[in-house]
Design brief:
Pfam family, one: Epimerase
CATH superfamily of the largest domain: NAD(P)-binding Rossmann-like Domain
Structural class: alpha/beta
Keywords: Membrane
Order of helices and strands: EHEEEHHEHEHH
Distance between the termini: 12 Å
Number of helices: 6
Radius of gyration: 17 Å
CATH class of the largest domain: Alpha Beta
InterPro entries: Epimerase_deHydtase, NAD(P)-bd_dom_sf
Number of strands: 6
Shape: globular
Helix content: 25-40%
CATH architecture of the largest domain: 3-Layer(aba) Sandwich
Subcellular location: Membrane
Protein name: Epimerase
Largest sheet: 6 strands, parallel
Strand content: 15-25%
């Protein structure tokens, strides 16, 4: 009989995080799913027939105070923002680099079985684009971290989907354009296709070991 797994999600209120949470709650391989969130989750949006969900409201600026929650089989990190929403580059870096890097360190300290996070297609520590450069720097920092087994970055292209209370018109236009270009994005260019959030969520789960 298979041993049931425990999971921890950071960023469960985001576009990918919401889809990932739905998948985990309905996946019979998991017996518990803990979510670290800034504000209470609207449980009416999720099906939780087996009462697996354990939401915990925390202060991400003091993430290391919640180290005990990282003692799970699988850690999923869906944290992320945009330069526009963050307001400036330091605030953006705090979310997209610092929070995720600390989460990886806590996963290592608690010997979590796997750590998967969302990066971006085109991530490169030497990129002239600040967003892609930060994503690349984070990949380098985590993948060079010793004693962190099964660490993996998922690199989606533009996400297709509506974000609640989050106006990103340029991103929506970009997704529409990428959808039109989809037939041309084949072979090495396939990675640049726009993707749906549930596809990213499933890809994150694929990287975990059961």
């Amino acid at each position: 009989m298979a041993v049931l797994k425990s999971a921890l999600i950071l960023g469960a209120s985001g576009l990918v995080g919401q889809n990932l949470l739905r998948l985990l709650l309905l996946d019979p391989r998991y017996e518990s799913v803990t979510c670290l969130v800034r504000r209470p989750l609207g449980r009416q949006h999720y099906q939780d027939p087996d009462n697996k969900l354990r939401p915990v409201v925390i202060d991400f600026d003091n993430l290391d105070e919640y180290q005990g929650y990282f003692s799970v089989d699988h850690v999923y990190c869906c944290l992320g923002t945009t330069l526009k929403k963050a307001g400036d580059i330091s605030a953006f870096r705090k979310v997209d680099f610092e929070y995720v890097h600390v989460a990886a360190q806590l996963a290592r300290a608690q010997r979590a079985g796997g750590f998967v996070w969302i990066s971006s297609v085109g991530a490169n520590a030497k990129s002239k684009n600040y967003y892609l450069r930060v994503k690349g720097e984070l990949e380098n920092a985590i993948m060079r971290m010793p004693q962190l087994p099964n660490a993996a970055a998922v690199r989606p292209g533009v996400l297709i989907g509506e974000r609640a209370n989050d106006d990103r018109p340029l991103e929506r236009v970009g997704a529409s354009i990428m959808q039109l270009l989809k037939p041309l994005l084949v072979g090495r260019l396939k990675k640049y296709r726009a993707v749906y959030p549930h596809q990213v969520a499933r890809e994150m789960m694929r990287h975990q070991t059961f």
